[in-house]
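Re-run with default settings, no changes from the original entry. Doing this only to confirm the output is reproducible before filing.
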Amino acid sequence: MKISYWKSRWKKDKTGWHMDTVYPRLPELWSELSLKKGASILVPFCGKTLDMNWLVQKGYHVIGIDAIKKGLLEWMGAYPKSFSKESYRDYTVYRSEHIELWHGNFFSLTPCDIGAVDVVYDKAAMIALPKEKRPAYAKKVLDLCDEHTQIILQTFEYKQDEMSGPPFSIPEKEVQSFYGDQFKVKLLHEQSKLDELNKFQQRGLSTYLTEKVYHLIPLNKK
């Protein structure tokens, strides 16, 4: 999807993907990672997700990035601490205690910009992209990983011809094709969402809708 599509959605407050609570599975899933406080967490296409609040409260350093400014401003407006503002390359970077929010193009981000990250938290990022854009996204994620970086990846699976995305259907074999050479792909969570997310039935989905969450573990990690 083009940036103009997402800007239009934000401008019209049509942000149905945004959850008004922390993702309920997050504490359970996070226990799989065995991270120390201060670990660096990258959140692509972060919007105004409350998951970042949870991560900050747990003592991690959070780096959120999004091309849409409105969501970042709304998140900062609800945060109890003030932010500094800096222009860096083609980005505007907002920093506060334990968090930095980058306004700009995720695909231009480099490891030199943000340093080593311990986890890439992909919650509704890859599933926001059509099939032709996902290889470039996965490549960028890999570019931002070093040998110890872990990934939490949420996907949906459904019959793509029943409903146009976003969110898009991403089968496990596609996850393997992007990441399987460098990561062990471990399924942490699988749940039917067809009845719960009935708004998708209104868009034509009728057969099944399965949410999956994967833990991607570097193959060299012991």
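DSSP finds eight helices and nine strands in the chain. The mean pLDDT is 93.
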